[in-house]
Specification:
This is DUF1203 domain-containing protein. By secondary structure, the protein is an alpha+beta fold. Helices cover 16% and strands 33% of the residues. The strands form 2 sheets. It has a 6-stranded antiparallel β-sheet with strand order 5-1-9-8-6-7, with helices on one face. It starts with a strand and ends with a strand.
Amino acid sequence: MTYCITPLPLAPFQPFFALDDAALLARGARRMTAGTPNSAPGRVSLIDAAPGESLILLNHAHLTEAASPYRANGPIFVREAAVQSPLVVNALPAILASRLLSLRAYDRDWMMVDAEVAQGEAVETWLSERLADSSIQTIHIHTARRGCYMAAASRPA
């Protein structure tokens, strides 16, 4: 089974880049500077921010379907230098392959039907196996330790 990884779109986050710190704070966001390598994963570019790189830390609603009890939001980093990553087909970007991940499979009604914690090749296997099941529509990928949303996986269109 093939799968694709979908990053978040850049456009909704671009207005944040022009805001000063007070305006960001008023919106519940913060401008941050990446510290150590691999400490600030960008959700639009699907790459980690380099140490010293500027990011916006903000709350993002990643599951907004009103009828689902699994509605969810949480903190994400967006690199101010982000360039939109295309869909990634049949490969895990390094930002995902290098982390322990929480995988959450949803059906068409946005009900969670399966979940797993995995890393590396085990993630690819799990995604492929679950997406071979026609009852699974989408898989959300989160960091396992902090629970932050990373990307979504689905069948290619």
